[in-house]
Amino acid sequence: MKKILDILVRGILKENPVLIMMIGLCPFLACSTTARDAVGMGIAATFVLTCSNVLISLIRKIIPHNIRIPIFIVVIATFTTIVDYLIKAYFPLLSESLGVFIPLIVVNCIILARAEAFASKNNVFYSFVDGIGMGGGFFLAIVILGIIREFLGSGSIFGSKEFFSTPAVIMILPPGGFLVAGVVITITKYIENKLKKTSKIISNLPSACEKCILKSKCIEEKL
User: Which of 19, 32, 33, 53 would give a disulfide with 188, using CB separation of 3.0 to 4.6 Å?
Assistant: First the structure.
């Protein structure tokens, strides 16, 4: 159970593919002009990532090492095609809005990276959990960015009634995407560094401090 939680937390927080590892930034920026588009891309990418991880883990022992990358790409392309057709069939407006970025999931470096670094080396269940964790991390990041950009740039959230009449339209344009993404990533990095520093301080505290009622005060002073 602990390992499962570690894998999930790693993907969502500790090694968030976008906010911490800084990969998969193209769809992160391009598909976050509205919260609706962000949710659609987040779900699509998570589906492809999870299914690819599971299948690659299943066949990892029979994949020739020298041609593993082309095989990974074929697997990823298969699930990308499936999700592309599903969105076109059931969510045509979303498909039109996301455009070419759904087919481009096949070259999303997050998915290929997890196939190579994790799914090809671990069992099916752990690979499934890793897909959910990493996909969840990407989903969380892109939806947060989409909500912020839509709110500031259109004055609405998920297409709801406008909260104010003079939004900053630049926020739904490429420059606004880079600006908001930079702020979100900076805040995430700041929190990450604080948590690392706190963890280091706690690990270096004397054992006598474990039950001390002033433990939290000591940590605050060291920070």
Answer: 19
